[in-house]
Amino acid sequence: MRLRPCIDIHNGQVKQIVGSSLRDMGDSATENFVSTQDAAFFARMYKEKGLHGGHIIVLNAADSPYYEASVNQALSALRETPGFLQVGGGITAENAWKFLDAGASHVVVTSYVFKDGRVNYDNLQKLLNEVGKEHLVLDLSCRKGVVVAGEGALSHDADKYYIVTDRWQKMTDVEVNMDTLDELSSYCDEFLVHAVDVEGKQSGIEAELATLLGSWAKLPITYAGGVHSFDDLKLLRECADGRLDVTVGSALEIFGGAMSIDEISEYCRVHE
To answer: CA–CA separation, 177 vs 191, rounded Å?
Structure first.
């Protein structure tokens, strides 16, 4: 179990938000914390603390007026810490090397691969051919099934987890299960999984999701969402038998919360 730090960038600023509140229309989100420091500041901090393998996520859509400012923040952080951090948000086969050349160890991808409710294997293969398995992280951010009414409605089971795309706003019909993990593992180096319903809420982890992911564990998986105490870290470790890495965001003191990043890092080191 390792701590994988995060830098979330929205409207050109480092923020912690409630994930389920994010909307492309108006570039709005419920904010838990807005930093006066830039992304490069946090990247340097993580490097000084030896916390590699974290991720930078650009939370604006590519057509947002804020997208360029958010990407520039991400690029500056990558240039400060070459090979140390991953980056996601609007990644395609056409622009992936822009971020890798800037210093990203991996690109993190969701929406380019999961389109129109399913896996777009053409795009996935393009990305694989372009950057190689060793540079690719698939983001399987997910939530429990919901009923989607109207034309093109998807059929979901309320007891199962389904991948969500487009900055956690669109449900797909791709279930997160052993078969999906097995199938996609041949294309990537790691998985990143945000539990969308608890992301940014500091309301506790999704224990059922953690158990599911921990029972697979054939590639590194980073779990994100809901951690707000060391009891949550303990529960995550127990559910996944220590097989998941963890991201903590809004609960960190550096992002306005109560948990010390150094104490979390030490807890994870002891239980690695």
So the answer is: 13
Quote the CA–CA distance of 260 and 253 in Å, as a whole number: 6
The conformation of residue 224, written as its DSSP 8-state character, comes to E
pTM more than 0.90: yes
The confidence band for 148, taking pLDDT boundaries of 50, 70 and 90, is low
- Structural domains of the chain, ranges and CATH numbers in brackets: 6-270 (3.20.20.70)
Q: Please tell me the distance from the alpha carbon of residue 212 to that of residue 257, in angstroms, as a whole number.
A: 28
Q: How far is it, in rounded angstroms, from Cα 10 to Cα 249?
A: 14
Q: What burial letters (b/e) apply to 10-38, b meaning 16+ CB within 10 Å?
A: bbbbbbbbbbbebeeeebebebbbebeeb
Residue 30, φ and ψ in degrees, nearest 5:
-75, 120
CB 163 within 8 A of CB 213: no
With a pLDDT cut of 90, the percent of the chain lying above it is: 79
pLDDT, position 155: 61
CA separation for the pair 23, 61 (Å, rounded): 10
